[in-house]
């Protein structure tokens, strides 16, 4: 990609973030992405948004908070409640969804218009989430953990752990 195109895309990304009232730190890099901000979205310093990332803060009380030195490469983040990502994380082509997206009642009217369950998602520092991972509502991933590509994460992950599979299971403890 040419330098002129990179500069144009970064300028457009800055305008897009300002237009959507996204608070961001220094040395933001990346290309324009899909943003819906009805709540609060905060990006730390040295955040890299790449390849069609999507940030959806749905309600006035919804929060997406992304720490420093984070790479989002084609990620989709949907918050009705909150999604918090720590520092030094790498996320590739994954989805973080803190809600059910619809009511699970068998009654069609309630399913369409009933209350939707949501619960915060939290990623600690230095977390690596592989491609095509789905992180479901209420999950906390501990510091220094890795989630293998293609996993569906429905339960909490302790620090320094490798999890993988559908549903994701403990694979091994990570050491330095």
Account of the 3D structure:
It is a single chain. The protein is globular, with a radius of gyration of 17 Å. Strand 19 (about 160-165) and strand 20 form a beta hairpin. The mean pLDDT is about 95. It has helices at about 5-20, 110-115; strands spanning about 25, 30, 35, 40-45, 50, 55, 65, 70-75, 75-80, 80-85, 90, 95, 120-125, 130, 135, 140, 145, 150-155, 160-165, 170-175. The protein is mainly beta. It contains two helices and 20 strands. About 15% of the residues lie in helices and about 35% in strands. The strands form three sheets. An eight-stranded mixed β-sheet has the order 2-5-8-11-14-17-19-20. The protein has a six-stranded parallel β-sheet with strand order 1-4-7-10-13-16, with no helix packed on it. It has a single domain (about 5-175), classed as 3 Solenoid (UDP N-Acetylglucosamine Acyltransferase, domain 1).
Assembly form of the protein: single chain
CATH level-4 homologous superfamily:
Hexapeptide repeat proteins
Q: What strand order characterises the main sheet?
A: 2-5-8-11-14-17-19-20
Strand content: 35-45%
Number of strands: 20
CATH architecture: 3 Solenoid
- Average predicted confidence as pLDDT: 93
Annotation field: number of helices: 2
Distance between the termini: 36 Å
Defining traits:
176 residues; mainly beta; UDP N-Acetylglucosamine Acyltransferase, domain 1; eight-stranded mixed β-sheet; six-stranded parallel β-sheet; 13% helix; globular
